[in-house]
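EI: anyone free to look at a 246-residue chain?
SC: sure, send it
EI:
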Amino acid sequence: MVELYFGDLTTIDIFLALFTGIAGGIVLAVAYKLAESGVDHWKPRKLVHISMGSIIAFTVHFYVTLSGPAFAAGIFLTILFYSWAHKSDLITALLVAGSRENESSLNTFASGFMGIVAFVVAFLVFFQRPTIFVAAILAVSWGDAAGEVVGRSLGGMISSRRYKKKSIEGSLGVWAFSFLSILVAIAIHSADICPLCFIPQIVLIGFAIMLTEVLSIGWTDNFFIPLITALLVWQFIFPGMPLFLV
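SC: here you go
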């Protein structure tokens, strides 16, 4: 479990940081190439959304100290700015590619930035129970992303009615993959509890995440979904667990 201080880099820290930084750079490169080839903007956006969130969720717990994640961020930024120095329109192109229809690049930046803020808050408050902050990260990386992937691919099959351009099929995708996110987080990080024993609670949490996504405006889902997921997993699955910041 990662400790909340900056210490000497261990072999595990260096390995995870190299993997995270390089994998992040590859994901952005693929997204840029997809955008450059003229595919619909939502495809490279969701590629980054799902891949980067999954990388963070499945690695952050295994660092030894905060020096590891800081080193990973440094590697990623080094790759990004090196690429930017050789292709000056790179960052602008990525922001444009990641923008929804009728939204600005600033909104795209705010979406990513506020998502990271929510991840950090969930991590700092619940770092003693990795299940909680991993579920929070995966809920937005998988659940929220599924809303657009499923909605754009299958939207209209059950009903043509939409709410704020969101389909029933997309909302069901959010619920299903939020449910899966919590199950995966429990299975990986909570060997002391039975995931199947909490199916009713996970169903309710998934429903709450779905409602959050439906009611969110613009980029706010990236901020609210991780925080609401963390709070609900804490209350329904780990009630009574003390908060780190209390």
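EI: DSSP finds nine helices and two strands in the chain.
SC: 👍
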